[in-house]
Amino acid sequence: MKAQLYCDGASRGNPGDAGIGCLIILDNKKIEISEYIGKTTNNVAEYTALIRGLEETLKQKVQEIEIFSDSELLVRQINGVYKVRNKKLIPLYEKVKELLTKFKKYQIFHVYREENFIADRLAKEASWKQKK
């Protein structure tokens, strides 16, 4: 099975209240994820969104995936163009790389926010869902 994953993270304050958003498009099904993740940076939220989206697609038995993110940093780090130097991002990067080995094929693309508007909206909405 093939899927497309649109993912985004949002942090109000950077660091601040943060949320993740994912839109997964399977053959004839769409899955939306919008979750509050606590106070963190935007880059941590971006990675957390990607991890959550990958985990969900693996649950759906997806074997090939196209990933779209408006975080140029994340896309370039995953594609090996940039090194990951931030100590908070290194374990998240390693988790992403581990999850990606479970797919037969994957590609990750940078897109503009306008092309990622659903995941962007889901992440921003989630950043307001503070846990009590």
Element order: H for helix, E for strand: EEEHEHHEH
Percent helix, as a range, is: 25-40%
Net shape: globular
Number of DSSP strand runs: 5
Beta content comes to 25-35%
Tell me about the largest β-sheet: 5 strands, mixed
Mean pLDDT: 96
> Rounded to an integer, what's the Rg over CA atoms?
14 Å
Poorly predicted regions are: none
Structure annotation, total helices = 4
> What structural category do the secondary elements indicate?
alpha/beta
Distance, first to last CA: 38 Å
Strand order, main sheet: write it out. Answer: 3-2-1-4-5
Written overview of the protein:
Residues 1-128 form the RNase H type-1 domain. This is Ribonuclease HI family protein. With 132 residues, the protein is an alpha/beta fold. The chain is 36% helix and 33% strand. The chain has 4 helices and 5 strands. Strands 3-2-1-4-5 form a 5-stranded mixed beta sheet. Helix 1 (42-59) packs parallel to helix 3 (89-100). It is globular. The chain starts with a strand and ends in a 5-residue tail after the last helix. The model has no long low-confidence stretch (mean pLDDT 96).
Name some characteristics of this structure.
132 residues; alpha/beta; five-stranded mixed β-sheet; 5 strands; 36% helix; 33% strand; globular
Reconstruct the topology from this structure:
Layout: E1 2-12, E2 16-25, E3 30-40, H1 42-59, E4 64-69, H2 72-78, H3 89-100, E5 105-110, H4 117-127
In short:
By secondary structure, this protein is of the alpha/beta class. 36% of the residues lie in helices and 33% in strands. A five-stranded mixed β-sheet has the order 3-2-1-4-5.
